Amino acid sequence: MTLSAGRILAERYELTRLVGSGGMGQVWSAHDLFIDRRVAVKIVLGQDRPGSVEMFLREARTAGAVVHPGVVTVHDVGQDVDGTLFLVMEHLHGRDLAAILKIDGPCRVDQSLVWAAEICDALGAAHHAGLIHRDIKPANLFRTNDGRIKILDFGIARYTEAVSASASRIIGTIAYMPPERINGRVGDHRADLYSLGCVVYELLTGEPPFGSGEFAPLALAHLTREPTPASVHRHIPRELDVLLLDLLAKDPDHRPPDAATTRRRLAAVAVTIAARHQAQARPRVANRVEQENENAERARHERPTTGPAVAPPRRWEAVAARARAAGDARKRPPTNWLFWAFLTNVFLILATLHGHAGNLVGAGFMLCLGFAAYWATMSRVSRCFDERRSRIVMLWCPAPAVVGSIALAVIWSA
Question: Cα separation of 197 and 112, whole Å?
Fold first, then answer.
């Protein structure tokens, strides 16, 4: 088959760029001239065999009847004037899981569970429509740029198998092929579940259950060997380990009965993982809060022995908030030191007046009251300001009384 960019299939689809090719065909990026949109066109071989065209059209139409967000949309199917069979699909942007595994390596457990659940949803819709994929593998699972997983090539595997020239007609990727198909049996929808188990195993460990290599050793391993549990390669929940071993059972009757059951078991594993993470997070949070409380309590009782003194907040509201947080009402800062400063000056002025009137007893009594008020002012100021500011306030506190006494003396002498 010779194809080149610029060729127009069925007078509608102009091929623009070769995306990929394989033994059974090619995939092209193309332009739909009727609707003016980008599409993907898959060109398939084998149209020269008797009945192959009818079978291809029938399988492609069956695949196109499956409408699900997880299945690539089939827009059209047909045959060009020279006999070229083609399948027109939606144009996807993103990477297939094979490319993701090659570049990024094994995936996180939670991400693998999400992707596996989306694949199960798509497989369930296809199986309900009577369609079996027969070639589930990372290269046929496409992750779009918006994070969704789509299954490619539904309906193509059966046609490819029918037109294959091999004697055994075993078509598919041997690393993901179920034992019944290796034995030559058609199998049912549970064959797709076996392949899904291989894919999830590779997402978690980076390798299929029996590795990759020559056909014969891998086929023998699928038929006779039990897979090594994925938990040997990395830490995963026991429930997920058991589910993978069930999916990889040699006997289809020992696998989950359908994709919906597999989906429910995946969801149960996800819930278990979330619960364990939450249970592990609680002690960490509790220990962190306890440590913060201990640090706060230690800082509250320890005072620095060196370095400059740290001035407490000047605003009484901040000091009051800190005192309330300490839970000690007795340490609440007073807000009435101005009142006592005022009384100090009043008593000193009264002492001056009594002394000028010759009432020495009254003057002495007022002086005692003035000193008491001054002491009360000093004790309150020291709890609201640092040492330097307290000295300044106490130095200027009796200044009004001193100025007033001097003014009275001047008046009396005049």
Answer: 11
